[in-house]
Write a structure and sequence with these properties.
single chain; alpha/beta; Rossmann fold; 3 domains; six-stranded mixed sheet; 16 helices; 35% helix
Amino acid sequence: MTTLNDTPSADRVHIGFFGVRNAGKSSLINAVTGQDLAVVSDVAGTTTDPVRKAMELLPAGPVLIIDTPGIDDEGELGQKRVRKARRVLNSVDVAVLAVDSMRGLTEADRDLLALFQDKRVPYLVALTKSDLAGTNTQKAEMGADPILQAGTCISTSAETGEGVHELKEAIAKLAHRDGPEAYIVSDLLALGDCVVLVCPIDESAPKGRLILPQQQTIRDIIDAGCTALVCQDSELEAALGQLANPPRMVITDSQVFGPVSKVVPEHVPLTSFSILMARYKGTLDVQVEGASELDRMREGARGLPGEPSAAKASGPGDFRPRILMAEGCTHHRQCEDIGTVKLPNLVRQYTGTDPIFEFSSGNDFPEDLDGYDLVIHCGGCMVNEREMAWRARHAAAQGIPFTNYGIAIAKMTGILDRSLAALEPRA
């Protein structure tokens, strides 16, 4: 169970270790972490799927270590493993390429280095097994390779500990994020403000705890020296009535956006956890634009000419949009699940169409989005900023509008403008 003191995996620095089979990658991970996180074997292909482990790694701090399969795996199954390893690159903040000092750079290593550069992933190269590699001259010759000089290159030995400290320091340096720190909501608040959070408890709510976005938002509010008043939607009117002054803001779970908007006075800013998550992950603008596709679907259903969606219909009532409902985590779906039941029903009602809904969860976000008219993603609390940006960018590259649950619901209930106005700095 995640507590208020835990650092969620999505907010940890993601460090991926890559390399060909038997390059010493798993031994290197164990040496860097000081734990037996990765299985070490002389048998090629021991690591069959990306393995993730959240931990503290000094001096980098809270990190998520990812051990990937060998990038040179063979056969049909091996190629599936390679695709999974390459897929990890969409979420890593720092990549470490393990290169066997005795073997030198392979063609697969060079392809990986080019991929790091293409995806703009900060990376460094760890020359493994340096205790077995021979003379310092040989090591120097390898380190002089032009493609290695483009990044940091460190000789390491899991056996003797050579270079391990230097490697950890180099990882921490790359992991340091430049630019202003991102906040969920506290940058919109002033000391002493009161924020009301509406957290419905229904069949889909996890028993005995709040969902992660709610936990994170509460912590952010408390850290800002403000007050968080938490209630269910059924108690919202009474909670507001007990306040001597209007709250600075009301933040609600998206699934009760409509009813909550009718209770909260117009002069009180109102938004949702999903919209705050889109802002926090840096994808708010593209997701707001993506929600406009819902209006185009509506117009397409009416057979209006000149609209992208209308072109796919032979006449009014014939158009059936294809929508991907994507979630960043995996969980047991309840009978009234928002992603599979409530939101699809709202889309049908709003657009006047009978869309074909398909679903993805966890790391199974499709690479090929051809044929979809829209992607509606969850808030992405379990997905790190880089992964969420890749998903939005990946959809845009294929011409597919991309939005999230909260933004879509606000759009369809007619309160999107109000929900975005709540994110404007205090006048």
